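Usage example:
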Amino acid sequence: MTTTEHGTEPAADAYAAERDTTEGRVYTVTGGDWDELVASVDPVNEERLIVNLGPQHPSTHGVLRLVCELEGETVRSVRPIVGYLHTGIEKNLEYRNWTQGTTFVTRADYLAPIFNETGYCLAVEKLLGVQAPRRAEVIRVIMMELNRISSHLVALATTGMELGALSMMIYGFRDREKILDIFEAVCGLRMNMAYVRPGGVAQDIPGEAVTMIRDFVDYMPKGLDDYEGLLTGNAIWQERTQGVGYLDVSGCLALGVTGPVLRSAGLPWDLRKTMPYSGYEEYDFEVPTHNGADAWARYLLRLEEIRESLKIIAQGLDKLEPGPVMVEDKKIAWPAQLALGGDGMGNSLNHIRHIMSQSMEALIHHFKLVTEGFRVPAGQVYTAIEAPRGELGIHAVSDGGTRPFRIHMREPSFVNLQAIPALAEGGLLADVIAGGASLDPVMGGCDR
Amino acid sequence: MSENNEVQPVGTERPKGLFGVTGTGDTSGFGGLVRAVPAPAEILSTPEPLGGYFDEIVGALKDLLGEDVARAVVVDRGELTIHIAPDRTAEVCKTMRDDESLRFEFCSSVSGVDYPERANRLHVVYHLTSMTYRRNVRLETAVGLDHPVVQSVTAVYPTADWQEREAYDMFGVVFEGHPHLTRILMPDDWEGHPQRKDYPLGGIAVEYKGAHIPPPDERRAYK
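Running the assembly step on the lines above writes:
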């Protein structure tokens, strides 16, 4: 510490220094020994310690800020603060046409892009009164279930990382990579694909990708056995998760918590079963539940859900029959056809030839549909799908124009995060991390 | 480019169209057609019977809370919307949740919509789900800018807490009885409510290396 004419200043400290405020003494901890810090706190006069986790703390699962009030190591209150990743997706949607909307919603929950796109497109299709062709629906289901697996793998990986099981992080991301490779083979992008479009999907699924999916379905069960071998019997893993982050069914329903967290409390509420969409009623699968209602139950449940998703994918592949992947109505269907050319994926050369040298009307049609877009009859709809984190609802309002009048995303991450105080208060500080990780929030989705 | 430093939106500098066309540039004649604005001042009810379980829900609600509870009942695209008064939301939600024939245990979503053409322009929309009967219903209420107060439903559905804060943040709807109605997604000291229709997207003109970039809502667009 050096003293200058302005008072006491820290010597070249990149972070905020210790200082006294009216609320008490403020410390900034960026590493070092916790015991040393605790020793400097007067245990008699400063019983309650306020610890600010985040927003850039690796264990808060994204840019989430948690203000915890501690008594010793016991959490007396937690206040989650969100909004750091707010990008105005809903507002932006109102300035683009309905088709462009998919490229925005896909970026909300970036671990589950296919779900955002499908939820949005189902809402637009309901407003339009059209239904995607069967092949497109089957492709959507396959892609959604692959996406569910990849999202759950990240949930397992990051939970592992946050609880110190670093091997799980490596394995989880390794296997997720296989799914991202499949996505790349299907539509050229690994994330934020804008693959699902109002009326169907952007392009047909190539045969090569089908082979990759079959290989993955054969490969993944062994991976799951490995995770179970690694974690389920592990005493540390059990100690860190069992009885931690408890939230029962009535708590879940009151706080609006859905998805694996609700099912881990014993209620088999899964929109794929209870309010089917996209033809889910044709698939044979179970809705796993557990009665632990804790982080351990959620871990086991996610593994079970991956196994069920694999079953659905296998059935989906059998249902893939040749056919169109976009509605027949040329006033809605995207005019350009994508094809693999010498310089990568792009507009089909046949289509370019057609509009540029054969048909003026086709060119006008292409231009109008791409620049202006199609009109959607006025009204409002709400569609809900079962995303990896729970109910993803899209409230879409149209005023009859070529752009959405209002889109609201009911994001499961946003709603579920309200449960953090209920999960964590009264427990230990370390259990805030385990409980929060078991909710599996994605801040991109939460803040939109 | 103009000499002065005043920022002008692209497209407004020279109000002439392609090939020197003035006016709308419409040569087809269809530009003269005027569409009725599909936002009537009064919301028209769907005539009964509504079909399906909708009659049951509306009937039960009217039996319990009186005929005047529903200002309008609309069925569109297989979805039921009940328009209610802004000072009765909590009462209606409590009945919807607790009555045996309704049992809407779960509040899926709360969202705001701004209809600038209407007198009561700020709408708040609640999507309720009955897990018992596997039914959905939408409750909608509307308030004007002069008194944008809606009764909070957080006491009935605690999940509405953050969602009402979001509606307050984005639309400026004040939820009476909410335990701590503060901004949630925007910074605490933000001015204005970004998702109102009169709030511009971006809203800031940018100058970068001599090029003027207008705010996004003033850029050239095909409409």
